[in-house]
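Bench notes, bay 3.
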Amino acid sequence: MKTFLEALHAKYSDQDYDPDFCQIFVSSKAPGKTESGSLIVPKHLVLNGCGITHSGDGEEIAKLCAQVVELDIAQNEVSEWSEVFALISKLPHLEFLNLSTNPLSGVLGDMCTGATYRRITKLVLNNTMVSWDAVNKLFHMMPSIEELHLSLNGYSSIEVACVHPAVQRLHFNANKVTDFKDICKLGQAFPRLKSLVMAEHEQLSNFCDNLDQSFSQLESLNISKMGISEWEELERLNQFPALTDVRMLGIPLLQEHSEKVRRQLVLARLPKLTRLNGGQVTDTEKEEAERGFLRRFMDEDNKPQRYHELEVKHGKLEYLADVNLAPVEFVTVDVKYGDKVETMSVGVKQTVSDFKKLLQNFVGLPPSKFRLFATDPIYPVYHGMTEMRLPKKCLYTYHVTDGFQFYIEPKNS
């Protein structure tokens, strides 16, 4: 069994804690200490994973922690709500409280009747298995909560007793709700909710009706790893009247597509989005996504409704030109030798030596007995032409294209 005070002194003092001695003195040169050497506790106090089970002496907590604004005691072993209240009742300026991963599944009972903590605006209860009964009582005790974390608590239903207009941000990841109608109850309980993070609900695949009524002010939504498998369900996100920011990583519906295609398909179907998966959506990106959507379905018999809406906006699009970007291997050229001219199909990957061997029948001379010139102007010019002197150099390095002209001259004997 370890108290909050023991953990506090273990972290911020190099002396063993003595419960009969209220003030600890350490070196005045140590960081975070006064000139007198007395212990100073930071306003943002973090004591994670310290094995805390109880609060400790209330008077000393009040002396040492009177200025604490944020308290994080996640991953400890506090199991009684009475110990939580014994601690925070001595922190008059507390605004943020993190109790995550403490086994707080027990009841509050009437221990907190009349007590209020109006300064607390952020409460984190992830992986505490806190009951809905306890959550409802905490709301009455902490009426100013704006941000609430209830992830990993195993909830299969929503049982919020009253409306709490102060709550604007809710984290509700990885619970066991199977019907989105229950999620809508959260929107009804928190009518000013602006941000909802509800990732890792793979068992949820459908939204409910009346999204506009349940979430009238919701601007940001995280549904990563939700089990959506139909485009019609994803398009129901358009029913959230204020929604502009969505995260949706790990959605089964999108897994078969590349990241670029996923983003384009979502932006084309959800026109109000200004942020997607953390990235800003520009007007240019949105227009490209919508035009790409039109081209994707223009030859389909069963076009989605969104196709017709975008066709009204952008009009009928022309087919993109089929441009072959593969490298050219053969070109048509003219070869001249004296009064003779012949048009040939020439492979540009062959070397000058191979080309001259090809031409020896046309010339009537072995390759060693004639010189070959080209009309490419970017090389050094010989009588207005470039001599192809290097036998191992490939023709494509001379930028040979259709219509190129080669000239042959016999060598002087």
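Next record in the batch:
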Amino acid sequence: MEDFNLHYRFLNWRRRIREIREVRAVRHQERYKRILVDGDILSYHGNSDEVGCYVAPRPLTKENNYFEVCIMDTGVRGTIAVGLVPQYYKLDHQPGWLPHSVAYHADDGKLFNGNGVGQQFGPKCFAGDRIGCGVQTEFFDRGMATVFFTRNGKEVGSVVMAMSPDGLFPAVGMHSLGEEVRIDLQAEWGLDEDDSAMMVDSHEDEWGRLHDVKVCGTLLEYIGKGKSIMDVGLAQARHSLSTRSHYFEVEIVDPGEKCYIALGLARKDYPKNRHPGWSRGSVAYHADDGKLFQGSGVGDPFGPRCYKGDIMGCGIMFPRDYILDSDADSDECLDAAEVNYKQRRVRNIMYFNDEDEEDEGEDMEQEYDGKKVTVFFTRNGKIIGRKEAPVPSGGFYPTIGMLSNGEKVQVDLHPLSG
């Protein structure tokens, strides 16, 4: 009988442990309603009559006391709210509307602190703006929290509120069609003002020219008219490719209406309203038809078409004796490096053997009859083709073109670094 009781207690103990584990697993799941979650992209998925709300799986802590939201699209009304809520907040209410929650609302710049009446707090926010929210760490153990908000890296204001027993969870609310944001739950804030400003502008500083393209961190968004071939939006990197940095990648976040997205290389003074590849001194792979354009408005079949989520890459295979002025003092050799991106691997072929290459493509203008390189393109980590091209004076600059409404890409100009 005693053995039976012990066995019964053991089974109860095992069942209790399993229940606790299940509760803990549920406790660390993100919660959302009328929100479409695609990685770190949150999109409103309702009919504009009802609120959509997202609550992060874990609360802010001393070690992780801040998060940020980048507004990618304000949609119809821009009714986007960013703030903190209890774990089991009602998902059909905007953050800040119910007790024990607080939020900064982008459409009117008001702060909502536990009720449906907001107080004027800061400026309105638009597409491209970054809203941050955090808790001052020194108040974590006192039952009260000083919650602060930022806009584009600068503090807007703060408010004191009671800490929920389970903590304060990052939350995003949306309430109209087309609203879309990118959330960064690992963001950091608290640098000196000069350092913070430098950090905010660091990605934009990577671009030498931007025409009808808006930068939000590593995200590029087309903001042109998209009505004719003269409405091209162009983004060109500040620095040309070299033997030290010879490859870059673009992920299609949103193909927009037509996916008229082009990735390639162009001379520094390339026309701002021409797709890469259309004019001399450029070569580009176009996502919408999979064609390669090299200094001409007529493309040649080259590779597969590209769609949302595809990663397009472009690089240069430099001959071993190729030396740029900027490389003269460098002893680096990247021959053994590899591209590691989202568990994909692209063999680094910065250098190539002339004997293995076929003579393909014809020379462009005679003014480029100097150095030649082989430009290669990748799709989702696999090389799809190569094209020989003469190097324009000053070098080849990473260049991205877009031409239809809604197009958005995420750019990594240095996927080989680190």
